[in-house]
Predict the structure.
Amino acid sequence: MCNFALMFEVFLVAQQGAIGTEVLVWIVGTILLLSCVALFFHQSQIGKELESELAQLEKVQKHNIEYEFVLKAMRLCTWHIDAEARTITYDNDYRGKNDNVVPPPDSPIDNLYDFVALSDRPRFMKSVDDLLAGRTEDFHEVCQILVPHSDKTYWAESYATVAARNDEGLPKTIVGTSMRVDERKMMETALMEARNRAEESDRLKSAFIANMSHEIRTPLNAIIGFTSVLPDVQGDEERRELINLIQENNQKLLTIINDVMNISKIESGKEQLVMSTFELNSTLQSLTDTFVPRVQGDVKLSTTFAKSSLNVTTDLSRLTEVMNHLLANAVKFTMQGSITVGYDEPAGKRLRIWVRDTGKGIAPEHHERIFERFFKVDEYIPGAGLGLSICRTMAYSLGGDVGVESTLGEGSTFWFEIPVKS
């Protein structure tokens, strides 16, 4: 603008004849040249500024693309909280599931708590409140999320930090991310179960060695001892008595070994179910009859069946094994009264067989524990504590269960329930 004003003044002076025409031309040309140079440098500066701004814009766009790529790769969702209004807004969600909880923009924080599982809610609420109040700088929680209008849940891990503060130094804006960690929680659960199984296996191994060393040694010592003195016995009566004792301890030793082998085969999965159809009444009667010589004193051993005849389809060998253990248990602990074997009317394709005795009975606190391996209510009664554990293992393998109803001092009813095809 100044150059044009100067040119105008020069022109006026020229018109008045103060200077010559050639001088006027040179002056005007010089002014125009200087103006062009100034304009060139000005345009160049503007061009550089534009290039810088374009480069910066391109850099920001590139960063946004990289940021979005990271969010997608890590399957994150991002959100921010207005700490003063106590509202939350989800900005991006790349978690890749269709059941993610995403509240509407500017939703109250308190509404978000309803989606957190009850077991995790108090801890989650305290962490959020501490962050909003400025008592903590960061937030990190792993909790179970309830999917609305369904019974589904999923695991989420969230991080947050304060992004801006007000004049008083209190949080104004909080930014955070969340991601689903279902697979990790499943892996942690599997690892914990594996560790528990390993610890349980180690405990059972120690218990097995401690119990078996005693249970096997007792009949084995008796067999060795009685066998060593047998050649020196002269009387036939005394010899028969020793032979009976040897046979009795042989049977005890064989029973212990069979129990251990049965547990090993079932748990290894090498012994498959062999289903067959048979008449239940005659099977149970035959099993009961084999225990008649083993009952103590005047104990009465009998059977009572809900049906006059019943054909069932199941694994006969496992059913026989379970009933043998239940009968042996009843005979061992019943000194007087009766032992009765029977079954109830089949209901819903399930059959309950039971052994009822008038023996010592079992205290309520032991009703579940007696099915644990090596657990014995009375340590003075011979036995390895494996029989009832085998019953439960075999019942489970058949898709059934075992249990007991008992009153201390009045007797017990052990039942064995399995699915059958009748």
